[in-house]
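Wed. Picked up where I left off yesterday with ATP-dependent RNA helicase. The coffee machine is broken again, so keeping this brief.
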Amino acid sequence: MLSSIILKSDYCCKKTIKSCLSFDIKNKYHCFSYTSNKYLNISNGLYKSGLVTINKYESRSFEIKKYITYSSKKWINKNFAYLKNLTDTEVSNRCSKQSQQIVTDKEPVGLHPKKEFSLDQTSVNSEKEPRAALNYATRDATQNNTDDALKTDTPSNVTNAPLHNQALSESEKVLIEKVEELDQDIKKSLLEVFQYKELTDVQKLIYENVLKVNKKNDLLIQAKTGTGKTISYLLLVIDDILKNRIMSVHTLIIVPTRELANQIYNEAKMLLTFKNNINVLTLIGGIKRREDQINIRRVKPDIVICTVGRLLDHFECTYLFNTLFENLKMLIIDEADQLLSLGYKNEINRIISYLPQKKRNILLSATLSYNLTEIRKNICKSDYLFLNCIQNISQHTNEQLKQSVLFHKAIDTTVILYNILIEHMRLNQFTYKIIVFFPTAKATAFFANFFQKQLKISVYEIHRQKEAAHRQIISNRFALESVGILFTSDISARGMHYSNVTLIVQVNSAISREQYIHRVGRTARSNKEGNAIILLNEADQLFFEQIKDLNINKLNPDNYIIKNTNISSYLNSWISNTQLLYLAYAYYSSLLRFYKTKYVTLKLTDDEIIDVVNNTLLSTGLVEQPHISNKLAIALNMQNNPRLKIRKDIDDLLL
Ligand SMILES: Nc1ncnc2c1ncn2[C@@H]1O[C@H](COP(=O)(O)OP(=O)(O)OP(=O)(O)O)[C@@H](O)[C@H]1O
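Structure written out below (tokens, as returned):
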């Protein structure tokens, strides 16, 4: 028996649904099918062969209306009839009749052509094979990995949120004060300390699919940057600690950077304001190991937040450290796609080998999809749930973010950066908060000093070569300031929340599309507006291919290369400053390395790399080409290139 929903009448508008729609209840899923529906966009479903599978809902008719995302409920009420208990054939007949009726449909306007998907008409009842029926609505080359991963999953694995950033109607919002499952003290701190009123999309998804129904599966969670993933998993952790109190560490949270560890620590402490019997501790580099050991004994942590290096260090060097985790209940890997990528994979695998098998794994990121299969295989148990707030990878960045690209010549890099900053500061005198990402730590150090000392623009500086304590102080200061400029390397790209950032500038290409998404995700957070500009010189141009679907508009470089007398004189007068000179040489070497590691993706020859690096340095006013050490030249495999100035007598200080 099938129940069906059919279009009541011919509907002629921009958002026409081409045919009819029916649904069947089989086991716990509702399966929607429709005939020639090209444009119907059911946000919380997965598509293939005419099937849309959605998890169980309480009210069928209501939920169906809710998940036809671009149509208002009013429109649905007017145009759909809800029919019960039809046989297969009846539905088919009605469907085809209905299809014939609606022949005057107009092309939908405002839907991206990529969103079109064709459905296999023959598989109206193919819910017999739910595995094969799973797929995303959007087809595009870069998403194939996700699709492949999902094809092998059972439908219960995947839960999508309504299209992200779409304003939730009042009835869809989950008000925190009404959430009965939350502990009273936690609720109190959410309402009074954080002053949040409702759950964000990702928090709502977790609440409804996991917390409320008390599920204990492993979780993969993907939601856009700045949407509250941290609170969402902290709620899960605290809920579990309160239910299953143990006398050793309950949850281990692994993150890529010290700053992020501290940020999560602060958020957890705030959440536990009225619950002082749950203890949190960070174990991060830059602090003596012995100090950690004392803190562990003193704090007796329930939740431990660690960076990868320090955790591994302890496992391998601290006597009996692994016994701390012998009853571990939860392992959380934040920024999971990064931590499970090549750079960190071995270390994470070693860490996991020290942890008990029987624990719950929760993996999060704004960009999980590209290496999903591997992540799933490596870490998750087979009955894991994938909670996904991003259904279309071209919507990975926030809607309220205005993105631009500026293609320019390397020789104009410094003046363009200067003019962008000056213009933004002028237009946002009392509110400007800017983060500038550079490709390497040494590039960051040089430009930070150059802007401070030569161009007289005050900037904060964070990168790996600064000491941990310094980094933390600068990070806190920038977070608290109402205006400011932060020059940073990728260390600040992921997870860091600085409120009210108005502009992100990226100098040169990012190391990947994902890193670009995380970098621009430092602005336009919590539904606020934000701007992002990426500066791509002649060598970086191919990087644009990786991000061009992200709705990025092009800026005219001519508007930014005007040199006023100020900058001209500043650029010409620093060569006697030995400290800056030293930093410039180091920047030069690091930029050669940067492009050499990217020469395959950017399709660069050695000569092109040397030219672009020379010109970038020339843009700062450094007329004479720096020397590099023989060792670096060999490492770059450029020791015989006559365009480089190589000196055997300088050491690797500048590497
Ligand atoms: N329910 C809520 N209501 C309002 N603001 C919230 C809520 N939950 C979290 N936030 C705020 O949203 C901001 C972003 O949160 P968070 O840093 O957890 O984002 P994220 O999704 O982890 O981002 P990223 O992917 O960049 O790490 C923070 O300021 C956080 O305090």
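Quick read: Residues 196, 199-200, 203, 223, 225-231, 366, 495, 497, 521, 525-526 surround adenosine-5'-triphosphate (CB under 6 Å).
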